[in-house]
Amino acid sequence: MPALVQVSIVLLSLALIALCVVTIRALSRIEKAVDRIGATAEQLGAAITEARGVAHEAHEVLEVVGDAAARIQRVTTRFEGLSERAMSVSRTVIEEVAAPVGMAAAVVRGVRSGLGIIASRLTHARQEPKSNHGGQS
């Protein structure tokens, strides 16, 4: 075999070995990348599972808040009706009681005034000295 063929075979063998080394390194890097992608996928799966759990809990909380809001609405409606009744009773009391009480107060003032006048006249009459008894001084 001539030397040129031998050198060509050696160079071809070296090129083939270099190609194999590069391919092995690339496969190693691809394997590492796939491992990283797998780990990321596992973490992503765990995060998705956790997010589903949180979403489920949030849904339950929203249901409870919705029920509470409905109850609060019913209580508010009842209080509204109760306040309307209280206002009606207040108006009735004011209309039915205030006028007679005002009249009674006016009567009491009139009686006091009349009694005051009578009392002042009685006391005034007692305080006046009796004038001459038969014209004698």
In brief, what are we looking at here?
This protein is mostly helical. The mean pLDDT is 88.
Keywords:
mainly alpha, 137 residues, 1 helix, rod-shaped, 0% strand
Describe the structure.
The structure is a single chain. The protein has 137 residues and is mostly helical. The protein has one helix and no strands. The protein starts with a helix and ends in a 10-residue tail after the last helix.
What's the topology here?
Blueprint: H1 3-127
Mean pLDDT: 88
What is the first-to-last residue Cα distance?
189 Å
Provide the β-strand percentage band: under 5%
* Helix and strand sequence: H
Helix content: over 70%
The whole-angstrom Rg is: 56 Å
Structural class: mainly alpha
Which word captures the global form?
rod-shaped
The number of distinct helices, counting runs of at least 4 residues, comes to: 1
User: Can you tell me the residue ranges where pLDDT is under 50 for at least 5 consecutive residues?
Assistant: none
Reported for the largest beta sheet, the result is: none
Give the beta-strand count. Answer: 0
